[in-house]
Amino acid sequence: MPPQDTRMARNYIETSPHQLSSLCVVRASRAIGDTVADPAQWFLVIADLHRALNSALVAALRGAAGIGAYPLKLRREWLDYFEQSRTSEIKPPDRDRVQPFLDLLSRAQQASVDLQGAPLTLSDQERRDLEKLNSLRDDIEHVKPTSWSLEIFGLPRISRAAARALDHLYSLPPVYTHLSEGNSPPHGMRLAKFLRRRTSDPDGRRRARDRIAGQWLGN
Question: 175: burial class by Cβ within 10 Å (0-12, 13-18, 19+)?
């Protein structure tokens, strides 16, 4: 690698929806184990689980052209660009905002050309729990100048719903393939399964949790 490229590699870090999801699951797994002694950790769990699930949804729905997570209008603009750019020099669409979380979640439950693999199956309770997760996340990420309270009851169940959804999304080919690459962060499927166990027993053996998470993180 030329010297300039070496300096670039030291000064920049790279991620992707697959990697970001996996990293957030690591943090959520650790924080869940700390909620018994410090219930305020649930605020961090909610934000990380939502980010992990949203990132996994984007990865799962990206499609062969990499545009599947965009709104329908923007997908059509990209398809039109792909077609016209074969014969003309035109600028690509200048927007890249994906669909809102709940829209992505709904699409992941339906078979489509963008979803490579089996659709996500949720019970009515799990669907309500993930909608609640989205609502709680909005309150946390969009902070208002006031204090507010969070009812702890139900949070482990909401976390289990997120973990089960992640477990399925990580098994889909477009997500599984990237998470299995040698340069990826900790393997997402193992983390999602571990997270499901943690949410079922948040007061479990903390040292075993830390040892396993430390191995995944290379500590």
Answer: buried
Average pLDDT over the chain, rounded to whole? Answer: 82
Pull the structure tokens for residue 72.
Answer: 């329908």
SS (H, E, C) 125-169: HHHHHHHHHHHHHHHHHCCCCCCCCCCCCCHHHHHHHHHHHHHHH
* Residue recorded with tokens 């669409």: 93
* Residue 186 to residue 183: CA distance in whole angstroms: 9
Q: How far apart are CA 193 and CA 168, in angstroms?
A: 10
Q: What is the pLDDT of residues 157-200, one digit of tens each?
A: 999 999 999 999 998 987 877 666 544 444 444 555 656 665 56
Domain spans, the chain: 3-217
Q: Taking the model in full, what pTM does it have?
A: 0.80
